[in-house]
Design a protein that fits this description.
Helices cover 32% and strands 18% of the residues. By secondary structure, the chain is an alpha/beta fold. The chain folds into two domains: 208 residues, Rossmann fold, CATH 3.40.50.450; 154 residues, Phosphofructokinase domain (Rossmann fold, 3-Layer(aba) Sandwich), CATH 3.40.50. A seven-stranded mixed beta sheet has the order 3-2-1-6-7-14-15, with helices on both faces. The protein has a four-stranded parallel beta sheet with strand order 9-10-8-13, sandwiched between helices. The radius of gyration is 23 Å and the shape is elongated. The relative contact order is 0.16.
Length: 396
């Protein structure tokens, strides 16, 4: 399959977000015009794991040659037309090792040597993985192995260290604000609390920013365990001073409660990166609010509307920012490749496009600085913007 032309390969890994297809389009069109051949690796790292080097093997499910016509059709849509997965080639379960690969017999196998051979067989000169810290941490591994890697950050939670912005975050915040405002009508009609569980495993940006924008009265974030009695007292206060007699709290899926410190609202099954599926903290908070509300409301209990937004905020077409930033990131990636500056992560830093070493991805977690942006007594944002970056976060 190798060609005399220089070849750029693109893949998308981890969860889907709006803005991936615009990024693929930007890379492809620019690369084609620079004289490159462009290959899409399907299903994230899974496509390169499953690639078969045997003569005559059908790899149409693993790689796809990209053209301007193909990417133009997809660019206006959400998700990723290349598909995605949470495959981790360095920790591949034995049952997941392709039958055409030999020499692997451990419960978890590192198939990187075959990944490298597959990339060489395809003729990849530069690889652009688009993903969160899990996907990009393996991109760093390949860079360490000598692959020419330039990475692009994406995640709903905006928690990739080294960049102020990740593809998908703006659409997530936009959808959260929109859907929260829609749900207000039910909460107000019945004079209830409204508890909305949103994304955010380690970082609370997806709860904090919509609350800053007025979508909620309070927010719970992973960085600060919450006392349910404290929340209930505040929510009752908000409820009773609202002319429509309701109040709203946004709860990050990774938030915790002080009374149950160390407890995680997770399922038992893990993905290849060791992450368990989160969910349930919103319902726990809702039950606690209902149980304790009478104590702060003259003996009268307040009912609760509880809603998990989940895939509603990551589905559908990208908003304006997640159409523009992916275009810029794609072109920045090509600039780095043309300059032969590999091992980089394209980024936004204090409002300016930039790039950082890909090693930044694994250096530390990006979380909310609660001393600057979260009032732990009031369970709401601190509204101090003088000199702050656009999204009140930076990876300094």
């Amino acid at each position: 399959m190798a060609s005399n032309n220089r070849t750029i390969a693109i893949l998308t890994g981890g969860g889907d977000v709006p803005g991936l297809n615009p990024a693929i389009r930007a890379i492809t069109i620019r690369a084609l015009r620079e004289g490159y051949r462009v290959i899409g690796i399907r299903r994230g790292w899974a496509g390169i794991v499953d690639y078969n080097r045997d003569a005559g093997a059908d790899n149409s499910e693993n790689v796809q040659e990209l053209s301007e016509a193909i990417v133009n059709r997809a660019a206006r849509t959400g998700g990723t037309f290349l598909h995605t997965s949470r495959t981790r080639p360095s920790h591949l379960p034995l049952a997941r090792v392709p039958s055409h690969l030999s020499g692997y017999d451990q419960p978890l196998n590192d198939v990187t040597k075959d990944v490298l051979r597959n990339l060489e067989h395809i003729g990849v000169d530069a690889l652009i993985p688009i993903g969160g810290d899990d996907t990009l941490s393996y991109g760093k591994r390949l860079h360490d192995e000598g692959v020419h890697v330039v990475a692009i950050p994406k995640t709903m939670d905006n928690d990739v260290y080294g960049t102020d912005y990740c593809i998908g975050f703006s659409t997530c915040v936009t959808r959260t604000i929109e859907l929260t405002h829609r749900l207000r009508t039910s909460a107000g009609s019945h004079e209830r609390f409204l508890v909305i569980e949103v994304f955010g495993r380690y970082a609370g940006f997806t709860a904090l920013l919509p609350t800053m924008a007025g979508a909620a009265d309070r927010c719970l974030i992973p960085e600060c365990p919450t006392d349910l009695e404290q929340l209930t007292e505040l929510m009752v206060y908000d409820h009773n001073r609202n002319p429509s007699k309701y109040s709203v709290v946004l709860v990050s899926e990774g938030a915790g409660l002080k009374a149950e410190e160390g407890m995680s609202f997770e399922g038992d099954e893990t993905d290849m990166f060791g992450h368990r599926k989160l969910g349930g903290i919103g319902d726990k908070v809702a039950d606690g609010l209902k149980e304790h509300s009478a104590r702060y409301n003259n003996g009268r209990r307040i009912d609760v509307v509880s809603q998990r937004l989940g895939y509603l905020v990551r589905s559908g077409e990208p908003d304006a920012l997640d159409s523009i930033v992916p275009m810029a990131f794609g072109n920045l990636a090509l600039d780095l490749i043309l300059k032969k500056e590999f091992g980089r992560l394209v980024s936004v830093h204090k409002g300016f496009y930039d790039s950082v070493p890909i090693s930044s991805v694994t250096s530390e977690k990006k979380v909310v600085d609660i001393s600057k942006y979260y009032n732990t007594d009031r369970l709401r944002p601190i509204y101090d913007f003088d000199g702050a970056p656009l999204f009140i976060m930076t990876s300094d």
